UniProtKB/TrEMBL annotation:
EC number: 2.5.1.17
A Pfam entry, by short name: Cob_adeno_trans
Recorded metabolic or biological pathway in which this protein acts: Cofactor biosynthesis; adenosylcobalamin biosynthesis; adenosylcobalamin from cob(II)yrinate a,c-diamide: step 2/7
Top EC class for this record: transferase
Boundaries of every Cobalamin adenosyltransferase-like domain copy: 7-173
NCBIfam families hit by this protein: PduO_Nterm (TIGR00636)
Record-level GO BP terms: cobalamin biosynthetic process
Protein's UniProt name: Corrinoid adenosyltransferase
Entry's family note: Belongs to the Cob(I)alamin adenosyltransferase family.
Alphabetized GO MF terms: ATP binding; corrinoid adenosyltransferase activity
Catalysed reactions, as listed in the record: 2 cob(II)yrinate a,c diamide + reduced [electron-transfer flavoprotein] + 2 ATP = 2 adenosylcob(III)yrinate a,c-diamide + 2 triphosphate + oxidized [electron-transfer flavoprotein] + 3 H(+); 2 cob(II)alamin + reduced [electron-transfer flavoprotein] + 2 ATP = 2 adenosylcob(III)alamin + 2 triphosphate + oxidized [electron-transfer flavoprotein] + 3 H(+)
Keywords in alphabetical order: ATP-binding, Cobalamin biosynthesis, Nucleotide-binding, Transferase
Subunit annotation: Homotrimer.
Amino acid sequence: MVVLNKIYTKTGDAGETALGNGSRVAKYAMRVNAYGTVDETNATVGLARLHASGELDAQLAMIQNDLFDLGADLCRPDMEKDAESEYPVLRMTDGQVSRLETEIDAMTKLVEPLRSFILPGGSALAAQLHLCRTVSRRAERLAVELASLESVNPAAVTYLNRLSDWFFQAGRIANNNGRDDVLWVPGANR
């Protein structure tokens, strides 16, 4: 259980922050950028939920919880030392990825195949979900870059890749199952 009885600690005033294993790094470190962008993704999901209801809202709530798991995973380097940890280390799982894939497949059955790219927009919820998609894509790019430099849980990167696909399909669902998607018309304004 997390207990936060003091919000500011002053330990980051010199431009460093603590990772999940206690080590300190610069606040601009690649790992901090990756999990910080996951946190930003979570904030955009919170905005999308203002427009969501029912099953979609419940799925977004699960994604928000997953994103905290993902941040915990990414803030903890040295996967090879997980077994030595005093406490169980929280890592993303293939099961979380599979859940997203199942939900994407279910949404895909409800929409017609695309014959054009779509513009972010349509309904307020769809626009928010497209914002979620683009921020999660940035988080994925940062996690992939981090993985090229340091140890990263492969399920974390895969989850981010599926998540942006999930947001895309959810955006189509939010646009009347794709019937109200705003289609890109190449060269329309020449």
